[in-house]
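Collaboration report, partner site 2.

Our partner group contributed sequences for two proteins of shared interest, and the home lab folded both. The records are reproduced in the order in which they were received, starting with the first partner submission.
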Amino acid sequence: MILINIEKLLKRNGKTKYWLCKQMNITSRNLNRIIRGDTNSISFKYIEEFCKYLECTPGELISTSNK
């Protein structure tokens, strides 16, 4: 299972989901779907923007679980 560590990275940086939505011009509904893994794909554009605003690498943003 692929995990998107957005909430962990937001906490590390002292930022909120609301802040990230405003920075990326994304709806909170779509952000929450990405966080929960309710999407089939994430564009490279979003991965790049997440990394930019969360000050992380793609490896920190995306991880796997053995479940």
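Second partner submission, folded after the first:
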Amino acid sequence: MKLHFCAADTPHARAAQRTLAGRYGQADVGEADVLVSLGGDGFMLETLHGTIDGPRPIYGMNLGTVGFLMNGYHQEDLPERIARAEPTLLYPLRMRALLANGEAEEALAFNEVSLLRETRQTAVLTVFVDGVERMSELVCDGLIVATPAGSTAYNLSAQGPILPIGASLLAVTAISPFRPRRWRGALLPDTVRINIRVNQPKKRPVSAVADYTEVRDISGVDVWQDRSVNLQVLFDPEHNLEERILKEQFEF
């Protein structure tokens, strides 16, 4: 098994990369059977985005903080662990952000697409689902569209629901909604196309963020799941992603 070790830019992760490469060899990234990502969830997202054009199975080991998308870090028997790991396919969201000048910028998000107010004033948004207006005026600090894999990240912090990894759903969660004050968000099929229009974009500017790609001063955004792109993430059988999502719902 040819492995390529990639590491976050931290002393701990870089040291682990040197140790593991010395022990198991460091294959060229283009020839590797599996990429081993060393860091936290943020670096796993970087690894996912960096391998879209040349997809390889990714096995993460946690050397960060939370490590929700990572396995535990152990140096021993790594090829054997990877061989028995269980694959999970992740499909990203595609964000098409519309600018005031009529141009558009696109980006992919494996966790979530977030719309965020840029100033002290709240954002005022109109939400369409498959071309049908579902909410004429949402006054809030922002809005999140999250995948199942991303439902335990920013979405959970904003009191959004946790989605099982196999659920064909997207979570739509408001950030600090003012009106409607008690709106709890929505669960939508992952086949829908969501359009969010920004009202008064000059007075109340809004940015759109796909994972870590930010587009500022938008007039609106389209979000949909891009099934033409998928990446395989490997998890130890005793600590797979579906089990983590299930476990998260019963921890306080």
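Feedback sent to the partner group on the second submission included the following. The chain is about 15% helix and 40% strand. The longest strand covers residues 132-140.
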